[in-house]
């Protein structure tokens, strides 16, 4: 991982926050939530109703935000540098 990423944080429950990010150097989409990986691999609908897949990069990350926001989850989007040492990651 390059350490530079755009991230969507999804407040899954009061105790669990799932991160989904786009590694800016490789274009890979990664999550910290094992069960979420399967859902993400199938693709998500964006705000306009179009199905977007992980290989669509930033458009997919926006669809992740839209999907969870429209389903009532608390979501935040941020960009970070120096992201290292995140354990239990799953490539989508």
Describe the structure.
This protein is an alpha+beta fold and 92 residues long. 23% of the residues lie in helices and 35% in strands. It has 2 helices and 7 strands, in the order βββαββαββ. The strands form 2 sheets. It has a 5-stranded antiparallel β-sheet with strand order 6-1-2-3-7, covered by helices on one side. It starts with a strand and ends with a strand. The relative contact order is 0.29. The model has no long low-confidence stretch (mean pLDDT 86).
Mean pLDDT: 86
Number of strands: 7
- Helix count, DSSP H or I runs of 4 or more residues: 2
Low-confidence stretches: none
**Residues in helices, as a percent range:** 10-25%
Strand content: 25-35%
What is the strand and helix layout of this fold?
Elements: E1 4-11, E2 17-23, E3 29-31, H1 34-41, E4 44-45, E5 51-52, H2 58-70, E6 74-81, E7 90-91
Can you summarize this structure?
The protein contains 2 helices and 7 strands.
Please describe the structure with a list of short key phrases separated by commas or semicolons:
two-stranded antiparallel ribbon; 2 helices; 7 strands; alpha+beta; 92 residues
């Amino acid at each position: 991982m390059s350490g530079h990423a755009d991230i969507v944080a999804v407040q899954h429950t009061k105790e669990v926050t799932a991160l989904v990010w786009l590694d800016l150097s490789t274009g890979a989409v990664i999550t910290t939530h094992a069960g979420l990986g399967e859902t993400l691999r199938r693709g998500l609908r964006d705000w306009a109703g179009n199905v977007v897949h992980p290989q669509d990069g930033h458009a997919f990350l926006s669809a992740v935000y839209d999907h969870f926001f429209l389903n009532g989850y608390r979501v935040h989007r941020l960009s970070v540098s120096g992201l290292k040492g995140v354990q239990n990651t799953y490539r989508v």
